[in-house]
Amino acid sequence: MNVDIHPSWKPYLQTEFNKPYFKSLTDFVKTEYNNHLCFPDGSEIFNAFNHCSFDDVKVVIIGQDPYHGVGQANGLCFSVNDGIPHPPSLINIFKEIETDLGIPYPKNGNLVHWADQGVLLLNATLTVRAHQAGSHQKKGWEQFTDAVIKLISEKKQNVVFLLWGGFAKKKKKLIDMSSHSILETGHPSPLSANRGYWFGNKHFSKTNSLLQQVDQSIIDWKLE
To answer: Where is the Uracil-DNA glycosylase-like domain (predicted)?
Structure first.
């Protein structure tokens, strides 16, 4: 696995790259990609970091696994490649934006426009084997992405963390709440959303309000 990551992250993460667990993780990922169909494309594994430099991080959205269907994952959590049908969670994200901000439902599900504005779209696990959800969990990715969350918490100020669902909420312990804002709600998946745990959370307008309070530019959540 080639760690093709934006130079702004390297001074902070080089110690992680040098640790034994990361060497084991790299060997595992290389073997998986050599022997199985895996996602996202090898060149997109670190897309979340390459579209959102360390200096630019204003908002962090935490996902769990990349999509495991063919052509879906592009290295940004909840995002899909251009022209790919929107998965159920993404549909519910866009519906909430529609009601929260009055923004029309987008045709395209690629969230790169958010990432380019300082939204770190971070999956806890950055790779997956095709059609096998969770297949690359507990191999070292979580240790790495936890280190990323701690790094942002310790080295930056006034970042808005969006924790959606039980898995993401467990990351709260890694964040200094005296320096950052945390917004929590249910997961946008139909299972959670249909029970009333997602819709009406207004996280998108609330995020922009929090950014304005600290003189940060707001996120344009519109995709087209």
So the answer is: 50-211
